[in-house]
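Q: How do we represent a protein-ligand complex in a form that can be generated token by token?
A: Start from the inputs.
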Amino acid sequence: MDITGYSRAFCPSEFGNPSAEDALFHIIPAPLEKSVSYGSGTSQGPEAILTASDELEPVYLGEVPGEAGVYVKHQISNGLSTREFLAELSQSVSASVALGKIPVVLGGEHTVTFGAMAGVMEHYQNEKVGLIQIDAHADLRDEYHDNPDSHACVIRRIHEKWTTPILQLGIRGISKEEVQYREENRETIFWKDAPQIWKDGIDHSLIPDGFPEKIYLTFDVDGLDASLMPATGTPSPGGLFWHQIEEIFSVIRASGRTVVGFDVVELAPLKGFHAPDFTAAVATYAGIHLARR
Ligand SMILES: [Mn+2]
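Then emit the structure tokens for the protein with manganese (II) ion bound:
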């Protein structure tokens, strides 16, 4: 435990505390909380996930992904402005990618994904990196509450900046403006909304033909059904359950794609109710399982 009062390691009881050099995965705690629109508390998300991680069992789907080594870097200071925060996060992500590591960003509000993508894209100037987004919301607004850096705009900002191909999964809350933006960008934005997933199931056709070989995964925990994930700013019914997440990850894995980084965002822990924190820790471990190479 360090002075912030939480474990600075991922599941240390099972995997100890590997060095930055020895670990394939670099966790970057990113407790940004500036543009919360409903429930608050997402700045406590990274700490809650790391604390809950120590309760994980090491074997996941028959493998021990933690053996690849998971190092926890310094957290980004929540005292910064949003733009400064994203710049620092980008630098940290970029430094890890430069070392051949896989960055794992723990939010914090969804806005952090922009900083993570900025760090990743420094290394893939001439290559497309596809973004797979698990979320209840499209996050494609141009502005929200007059704020272009809102968590409700983050995927739009990424799409505008890098013309990133995007696959949205589990969406069930969307504005007219966002529906129109998706329709206008059908060449690069793909989606399978929650009702479609419930109706059609999940198979290899989930990933569109020609979607990039390299992907960044952003997992907004509100993509999960509200009953499974009440600890988030905008919990929404009609969402995904855990086995659907496993099926999605299994399809991505079977497609042979390389996960160059991922994040788990928008956990806002509820005092005295630790099940959602553990669920987010499992989501992080499932991402490590998916991205291990
Ligand atoms: Mn989101």
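Residues 26 and 103 are 5 Å apart (CA to CA). The beta strands are 25-30, 70-72, 102-107, 129-134, 166-169, 189-192, 214-220, 258-265.
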